[in-house]
Design goal:
The chain has 11 helices and 4 strands. With 327 residues, it is mostly helical.
Length: 327
């Protein structure tokens, strides 16, 4: 009579001696967790897909800055895909095999680094737009932005494939039971990734936005006597650029707040053991940022709200809808 409860608590009840133990929760707590995470996944998928469709479809929105937002929205959309696995990890069980475990972690790291890289590019874009507006159209072109986005994603993919090369050769090497997904990263690799994926980019973002903030404040003060356009030290900055800097600044601050815990636990002792079950909350916090970004766009960007109406009402199916005036 005691064997049935023990088997019911296993990830794989038929593998009594080798299966991992399932995390048990009260039914109400489990149901609430599944419903909440499912809602976040649905919102993340839907809103980021709207951002992707908006910028891809409407020609007026294909500006260098929006191309960077498109890259960020693409990474956020993929985060929604990764969050599907968190539904299963809520019970502490991995049902997709050792190879998929490694692939999952690689995708997680690649998308994380690509998101941070996109944030760095957004910070550079705002820095040039605010601090050197005269040369902005020359320095920041669509071709250059596309190249930078491609290099950002490619470098992230290659770097993390190399970091997890040993895990790819021997999937499941560090698992202690069937149904576990554990990847062990050496201290050297962990420190390298921490610097190139977090400390370095975060430093660049903070320094650039501090500079943008100082310049923007001085130009906002000048706006009291100049409506629409600010003139300072021989350069002109449109008030729309200042508003864009403010909005993207909110995006950056929220992003840093969400990923900070994720990287604060990245280094622990001589080795870094990342267990998919035990770190689910920290990972979900980072994932939740992907749901917040399009909500910020909806609050601060009128063009996003207008494009949503055109998409939802299927106006984009009309001929020449891509030429519609959105901004």
């Amino acid at each position: 009579m005691m064997a049935m409860p023990e088997q019911a608590a296993l990830c794989f009840p038929l593998l009594v001696n080798t299966s991992c133990i399932r995390t048990t929760r009260p039914p109400s707590v489990a149901a609430l967790s599944y419903m909440l995470l499912s809602a976040i996944i649905l919102i993340t998928f839907t809103l980021n897909l709207l951002v992707i469709i908006s910028i891809s479809h409407f020609k007026q929105l294909r500006t260098p800055t929006n191309l960077l937002l498109l890259s960020l929205a693409a990474s956020d959309f993929l985060v929604g895909f990764l969050m599907l696995f968190q539904l299963f990890l809520l019970d502490g069980c991995w049902f997709f095999g050792d190879v998929m475990c490694v692939v999952y972690y690689i995708l997680d790291y690649v998308i994380t680094s690509a998101s941070i890289g996109s944030m760095v590019l957004i910070s550079v874009d705002r820095y040039v737009a605010i601090c050197d507006p005269l040369h902005y159209p020359i320095k920041v072109t669509q071709i250059r932005v596309q190249i930078c986005v491609f290099l950002c994603w490619s470098a992230s993919l290659v770097f993390h494939c190399l970091c997890f090369f040993d895990a790819l050769k021997q999937p499941g090497k560090f698992n202690t039971c069937v149904g576990e997904c554990v990847i062990v990263v050496t201290y050297a690799v962990g420190m390298t990734d921490l610097f190139f994926s977090f400390i370095g980019p975060l430093t660049v973002i903070v320094v650039l936005y501090m500079r943008v903030f100082v310049v923007a404040v001085s130009k906002v003060r000048a706006m009291r006597s100049h409506v629409g356009i600010v003139t300072l030290r021989g350069t002109t900055v449109k008030s729309s650029e200042l508003k864009a800097a403010r909005t993207l600044g909110v995006v950056v601050v929220v992003f840093i707040a969400c990923i900070m815990p994720y990287f604060c636990i990245a280094i622990s002792g001589q080795d870094v053991a990342l267990n998919a079950s035990s770190s689910a909350f920290i990972i979900c916090l980072f994932y939740f940022n992907s749901c917040l970004n399009p909500l910020i766009y909806a609050i601060f960007y009128p063009w996003f709200r207008k494009s949503i109406k055109l998409i939802v009402t299927l106006q984009i199916l009309k001929p020449d809808s891509s030429q519609a005036r959105i901004m």
